[in-house]
Amino acid sequence: GFLNTLNGWVKKVKPAPANGVGGADHYLDLLVKEPGNAKAHLKLAELHQKKGEKEKAIAEYLLAAEIFMKNNFYARAMAIYKQVPKQDPTLDHVYLKIADIYRKMGFTGDAFAQYRILVQHYDGQGNKDKALEVLSLMADMDPRKTDLKEKIKIAKSQMDGNEMPGAGATV
């Protein structure tokens, strides 16, 4: 009945053996049985982190965050996504995920702030295509932002070689 359903929702990760032997193997085995177990991905990420395997740890953190997000646990996903750039600031797609979560939670201002950071980042790198993609996402969030749509048009025309003086792609 209800308790079985509740137990199904709240699957606990069994702790690894106290002696630490096979800790990663334990979680790998668990993930073979339950690939959608975000908590097991988190534990595996922590184990990789302790071993100094940064890339493996980040991959597991991102998997856990995706699972939490897919299951509408936005706060948990957000907490993970906010930690990842501290380990690898070059993973700019993570900022898009953070903005997406803010948008889904109804925090439009926070989503815009994340998008602005990305636009400035891409603009600073000279990556105008990516900056325009993010500007388009911003414009889609609020179709009344005609000034933003105009900036996008101006930036696109600049990229096509039709330079217009004084126009920039920053928000």
- What is the H/E string? HHHHHHHHH
Largest sheet: none
* Total count of strands: 0
Query: What share of residues are in beta strands?
Result: under 5%
> Structural class, judged by helices and strands?
mainly alpha
State the assembly state of the protein chains. single chain
What is the percent of helical residues?
over 70%
Average the pLDDT over all residues and give the rounded result: 79
Task: Please give the count of helices.
Answer: 9
Low-confidence sequence ranges: 5-21, 162-171
Distance between the termini: 54 Å
Q: What is the CA-atom radius of gyration, in angstroms?
A: 21 Å
The shape, in one word, is elongated
Describe the structure.
The model is unreliable at 5-21 and 162-171 (pLDDT under 50). The protein is built from 9 helices and no strands. It starts with a helix and ends in a 12-residue tail after the last helix. The protein is mostly helical and 171 residues long. It is 71% helix and 0% strand.
